[in-house]
Design brief:
The chain is an alpha/beta fold. Helix content is 42%, strand content 16%.
Length: 268
């Protein structure tokens, strides 16, 4: 079966997400989300978790499947995975909450939050401030903003809404134009995605190229493609503060043990 191009897939995802968003707003009004958010503990400091200590921080990701790879983990237990990651050196968690394309949901975020004190990033296709309210209501401390799917106005609006919620936003870029746009919008937590959204190709050279353009005042996170300690050392040489690893860990018999192999690399 031929996999559709990532560019086409992203268009499909955005279209579906808009439909999903309309339904969610009917089922769970913003006022209800705000009441739920008030019952949550204050957001944990995601940014600080990535810069504490002398070593490269690892954001360990929980995702059951992906459009390009299919099911990554049959025995997907978010609570067990969260505890395992926390016990083996993760600095923070990333949890996929998209259901249609990644097999996730907001309940998984709740389950992980209930058993783990690490900061949690809600990873989804955020298009509207309502989704930021959802993230806070279900226990997230930070959100992912994919710059490739946001125009300048949307990006600024979502960064402001995230700050107002007390959370932080990891702004994901893949090329120089996106990085310029996000820096002009005022983001200081930058994720560099090594996966090309047009081709699915993954190369660590993307971080090696773009990290040189990230101001020292920003926290820089390398995303996608790290599978070994050597890969982490290569990213450390770029001056990144943290890495985000998902698919590699999800494929392992013991994700926590695999995580240990990626930790302890000195930050440069």
């Amino acid at each position: 079966m031929q996999i559709p191009s990532a560019e086409f897939l992203l268009t499909r995802i955005v279209s579906h997400k808009r439909e999903e968003l309309a339904e969610a707003q009917k089922k769970l009004p913003l006022q209800t989300l705000q009441r739920m958010a008030q019952t949550q503990a204050a957001p944990r400091d995601f940014r600080c978790a990535l810069t504490t200590g002398a070593n490269i921080a690892v954001i360990a990701e929980l995702k059951k499947s992906s459009p390009s790879a299919g099911v990554l983990r049959e025995d997907f237990d978010p609570a067990a995975l969260a505890k395992n990651y926390a016990a083996h050196g993760a600095a923070a968690l990333s949890i996929l909450t998209d259901e249609k394309f990644f097999g996730g949901n907001l309940a998984n975020l709740q389950k992980a939050r209930a058993v783990c004190a690490l900061p949690i990033l809600r990873k989804d296709f955020i298009l509207h401030p309502y989704q930021i309210g959802e993230a806070r209501a279900f226990g997230a401390d930070a959100i992912l903003l994919i710059v490739a799917m946001l125009d300048r106005t949307q990006l600024i609006e979502l960064l402001l809404a995230t700050a107002e919620s007390g959370m932080q936003a990891l702004a994901e870029v893949h090329n120089e134009a996106e990085l310029d746009r996000v820096l002009l919008a005022g983001a200081d937590l930058i994720g560099i995605n090594n996966r090309d959204l047009r081709t699915f190709e993954v190369t660590l050279e993307t971080t090696e190229r773009l990290s040189k353009l990230v101001p020292a005042s920003c926290v820089c996170v390398a995303e996608s493609g790290m599978k070994s300690r050597r890969d982490v050392e290569r990213m450390a040489a770029c001056g990144v503060d943290a890495i985000l690893v998902g698919s590699h860990l999800m494929r392992q018999a013991d994700p926590g043990a695999a995580l240990v192999e990626l930790t302890g690399v000195p930050r440069q």
